[in-house]
Design brief:
Blueprint: H1 3-9, H2 29-36, E1 43-48, E2 51-56, H3 61-74, H4 78-81, E3 85-88, E4 92-95, E5 98-100, E6 104-107, H5 109-114, E7 122-126, H6 133-146, E8 150-155, E9 160-166, E10 169-173, E11 178-181, E12 185-191, H7 192-196
Parallel strand pairs: 7-8
Antiparallel strand pairs: 1-2, 3-6, 4-5, 6-7, 8-9, 9-10, 11-12
């Protein structure tokens, strides 16, 4: 049989189109809280655009000192005396269906008593070399759109602090420069190098 004849006698084969995978269903706020809120497995979970973002929850020694230094200064403020606190990785609603967990944020006495997820007015993010600048900037814009008033980006490696009072306005501080959380916490201010110091803090 010739090749031409075989081609005529053979039934035509219709190629099967590949089906695109079904889009994943958006995770609701209720489903997020049910599955991830009390999950303790060494990861941080945030709800972003209907997806759950998972990142390692690891604090370096340098970051531990930063947290301790900030808290040591904060307990001297009026906000602390009135019942406010600096808290680590607390859920915060930046949109009706979006949850962020800032590295550190200020919770007023009312927010703590109410136990709500309203945005904090003062947020601190510890920026590592592994952080992608696009995501850092996107989160910054999201914070201010949600009502955050002051954001500190702390760079432990460079020992610098970027203080934002809007998504487009910032100043960089280092060394003996004074950084402040005003106008949210007017009396929360300290030298930049005090944020990074690694000496033991006296409790007396």
């Amino acid at each position: 049989m010739s090749t031409a004849t075989a081609a005529i006698l053979s039934p035509a084969v219709t190629p099967v189109a590949k089906q695109s995978p079904a889009p994943s269903k958006a995770v609701t706020l209720e489903a997020y809280f049910k599955k991830y809120r009390d999950l303790e497995d060494g990861f941080k979970y945030e709800l972003v655009n209907g997806n759950v973002e998972k990142t390692h929850r690891t604090m370096t020694p340098a970051q531990s000192f930063i947290l301790r230094n900030l808290h040591h200064r904060f307990v001297q403020t009026k906000a602390y005396a009135e019942g406010g606190d600096l808290q680590v990785e607390i859920e915060m609603l930046t949109k009706p269906d979006q949850i962020r967990k800032p590295d550190i944020c200020y919770r007023s006495a009312k927010q703590i008593v109410d136990g709500d997820f309203s945005p904090s007015e003062f947020v601190v993010e510890l920026i590592s070399p592994n952080d992608k600048i696009e995501k850092v900037k996107d989160k910054l814009r999201e914070y201010f759109a949600a009502g955050v008033k002051v954001v500190w980006h702390i760079f432990p490696v460079q020992q610098e602090i970027e203080v934002y009072t809007s998504a487009r306005r910032s100043d960089v501080f280092s060394g003996a420069d004074m950084v402040s959380a005003a106008p949210v916490i007017p009396d929360f201010n300290m030298k930049a190098d005090e944020v990074f110091q690694k000496i033991a803090i006296s409790t007396q």
